[in-house]
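Hi R.,

Here's the chain you asked about this morning:
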Amino acid sequence: MSPAPWIILGLIAVLAIAALAAYKLRNRKKRETDYLTFFIIGLFWVPIGIFSGNHFFTLMGFAFMVLGLLHKEKWKQNAECWKNLRMRKFGIISLILGLLIAVLIALYLRMKI
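And the predicted structure, written out as tokens:
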């Protein structure tokens, strides 16, 4: 038996799941754009682009920073205070920031050697 029917059934299943996900996402409540996050992403992407020599990251970082700064008056709308975070969410954020710092240090040391 050839694998063609299974491939077609698989593609149909993937398309059905994608259509269902798109329908669910379209009908949910829209969130306000968080421009502070764009600015912070830009702050991280610029040094990563400089250290790695990847000009795309540097340019995109500057673009994110400019986009965030243009909408600076909207930063307070979506700001979440650190003391209001649940302990699990605080731990996850701390872990991600720690890993990011470790990666940046490793990249810096690799560039030095």
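The CA atoms of residues 32 and 78 lie 8 Å apart.

Let me know if you need anything else.
M.
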